[in-house]
Specification:
Layout (H helix, E strand, L loop, with lengths): L2 H9 L5 H13 L1 H25 L14 H7 L5 H19 L5 H4 L3 H8 L4 H20 L14 H7 L5 H14 L14 H15 L3 H4 L15 H17 L4 H22 L7 H5 L12 H7 L2 H9 L5 H9 L4 H15 L2
């Protein structure tokens, strides 16, 4: 009789439920039939003990589960502790992942090593190749995920295998794989910044970044423009004239107003950050600080307003790092002096002469 029947007898109060179950079995089935069933039960139990000895050698779950079939892993679950059952679940998840990959053979993935070996004897050449691929997959899984987790040392794993293993990795393991790839191929260091505090420094930084990227945004930014081509429908002569006109316009104005303003904002922010760092945040006068003035506003606008709100430390800092208005900055970019720029320089000079 089975375990469930023995347990039922125990719940009903039998003093020796196993002996009672055996007596009932002999009476119900007859002696010969009962002995056959009992022998089969002993054989099954012995086979299960032998199998558990293979999957749990020394009482601990095998570190490599890739050689056991899906059926065998299922048989073992009832005798495993929660931690071991979790490892089996992880192996089954990896097999599910492998079965979803292009060209996968789920019928081979679920077999044991012994079953794969028996197939080799009768396999055709394409089947042999598929079996070899599955054996290779198991070997990689065992090497990269010993004991069901990503190996501690990845330095000896080749890059192709690292890339392959990403499909089987947990998020934290994928981060470790990515870190190992970064270690092997560290990104090229960024060029030393010349500084956005001056126009020449800004242009040098932009040129260095363009060289690092291999292209200038000015050359490909038009691809983001989804407006219709204004030259659509023109003849070849009209297109040539339009190209000439565009070249001449570009020569007259190398920088658009919007681009100059963008560069000026970069310049102002760089100046503000440098002053904030060097002066330890002492940028405003006491009155301006009490009024809640934004210290960054001191780096743009009229000089007389900025100097009235600036700390003495910032005023002296401006002597070595001239404060530049948008008008002056535009002059530096275009190379064309203007009356507005002269006015801004005179105003700044007047403020500095008062120090």
């Amino acid at each position: 009789m089975g375990r469930a029947f023995v347990a039922k007898l125990a719940r009903q109060g039998a003093r020796d439920p196993q002996a009672l179950a055996a007596w009932i079995g002999r009476r119900k089935l007859g002696k010969a039939a009962f002995q056959r069933i009992a022998k089969q039960g002993r054989d099954d139990a012995e086979e299960q003990r032998e199998f558990m000895g293979r999957i749990r050698p020394g009482g601990r779950l095998s570190r490599d589960l890739t050689g056991f079939s899906d059926t065998e892993l299922g048989r073992a679950l009832s005798e495993l502790n929660p931690e071991e059952a979790q490892r089996v679940a992880g192996e089954m998840d990896r097999r599910d992942t492998a079965a979803r990959l292009p060209g996968a053979r789920p019928d081979l993935i679920g077999l044991s090593d012994a079953e794969l070996g028996r197939r080799v004897g009768t396999a055709t050449r394409p089947e042999l190749a598929a079996i070899a691929d599955e054996a290779d997959r198991r070997q990689k899984v065992g090497e990269v995920f010993p004991g069901g987790s990503l190996a501690e040392d990845l330095s000896g794993v080749d890059e192709n295998t690292l890339g392959w293993s990403l499909a089987y990795a947990r998020p934290d393991e994928a981060e470790r794989i990515a870190a190992e790839m970064d270690r092997r191929h560290p990104p090229a260091p960024l060029p030393q910044a010349s500084g956005a505090g001056t126009m020449d420094g800004q242009l040098a930084d932009r040129a260095a970044i363009d060289e690092l990227l291999g292209s200038s945004p000015d050359g490909w930014a038009h691809l983001a423009d989804d407006r219709p081509d204004p030259r659509e429908g023109m003849s070849s002569t009209e297109r040539w004239l339009a190209d000439r006109e565009q070249e001449q316009e570009s020569a007259r104005s190398a920088y658009s107003r919007a681009r100059v303003q963008e560069m000026y904002r970069e310049h102002v922010y760089a100046q503000y950050m440098a002053a904030e760092d060097e002066l330890r945040g002492v940028l405003l006068s006491r009155d301006a600080d009490r009024q809640g003035i934004d210290p960054m506003s001191l780096f743009t606008g009229p000089s007389h307003v900025a100097y009235a709100r600036a700390s003495e430390e910032l005023k002296r800092w401006w002597q070595a790092n001239p404060r530049t208005t948008l008008t002056e900055y535009q002059e530096q970019v275009t190379g064309q002096r203007t009356a507005a720029g002269d006015t801004a320089r005179k105003s700044r000079g007047d403020q500095q002469n008062r120090l």
